[in-house]
């Protein structure tokens, strides 16, 4: 009943979506959920060829022809990402929503650039492409739309652990807040929201993957494995924000709890930080 009192900005039904990092984990959960809610079409991007192809096969059998399309794409490659957007537009002549979910987590310093490129630079590029396509002020399709950028609770927690990963997620948060500001939204009609996910039961926190971390931090992550939230909980939270989130808002989805808005506290924190600016 409470959710019915919240303004509903979007109905998923008959809409066209693009999801990055959509072949597995939370991304795949979002793809499935959008089609379950009667989205017209969902294109999902990933570098995981086998997983993406299997998911596409599953979805086409369940929901019918043209409902889902896997596009093998390294989102950090601007040309590949631009071509993915071009495919969707050529096929459906519209785009209603983009969920930027792709991410890389590692403590291997040799791939720090990869984390920055995927976790932040690709989010910026994809968001800008979404504005070019959906923005009412650009005149291409002029329909407005939404962008959801997935951040992390690590963006809100100052720590010396995972400094590159955490920094990319902090950058996603501040970038999304700026892109979703009222001035931008009133011109473009594109809502931009940020979701900070808590530890979620995906491969990124798989026990075998924890071997790549130092012993102390690996033990800390492992101790949280039993309490990390289900993918379904993260997906439910993301859909709630899609439908009800105001542009520029920040949300938290953690511990299998309903999504809750954190915008006011984020704004208060930035106000304090900027007092001496």
The geometry reads as globular
Q: Helices and strands, in N-to-C order?
A: EHEHEHEHEHHEHHEEH
Strand neighbour order, sheet with most strands: 3-2-1-4-5-6-7-8
Compute the CA-based radius of gyration: 18 Å
Helix content: 40-55%
- The DSSP helix count reads 9
How much beta, percentage-wise?
15-25%
Structural class: alpha/beta
Question: Mean pLDDT, rounded to whole units?
Answer: 89
Return residue spans where pLDDT drops below 50 for at least 5 consecutive residues. 1-5, 205-226
- How many distinct beta strands? 8
Question: Termini, distance in Å?
Answer: 44 Å
Main sheet specs? 8 strands, mixed
GO molecular function: 15-hydroxyicosatetraenoate dehydrogenase activity; 15-hydroxyprostaglandin dehydrogenase (NAD+) activity
Protein name: 15-hydroxyprostaglandin dehydrogenase [NAD(+)]
Keywords: Oxidoreductase
Catalytic activity: prostaglandin E1 + NAD(+) = 15-oxoprostaglandin E1 + NADH + H(+); resolvin E1 + NAD(+) = 18-oxo-resolvin E1 + NADH + H(+); resolvin D2 + NAD(+) = 7-oxoresolvin D2 + NADH + H(+); resolvin D1 + NAD(+) = 17-oxoresolvin D1 + NADH + H(+)
Tell me briefly what this model is:
Helix content is 45%, strand content 15%. It is an alpha/beta fold.
How would you describe this protein?
By secondary structure, the protein is α/β, with parallel strands linked by helices. Helices cover 45% and strands 15% of the residues. Helix 1 crosses helix 8 (231-244), helix 3 packs parallel to helix 4 (112-134) and helix 4 (112-134) packs parallel to helix 5.
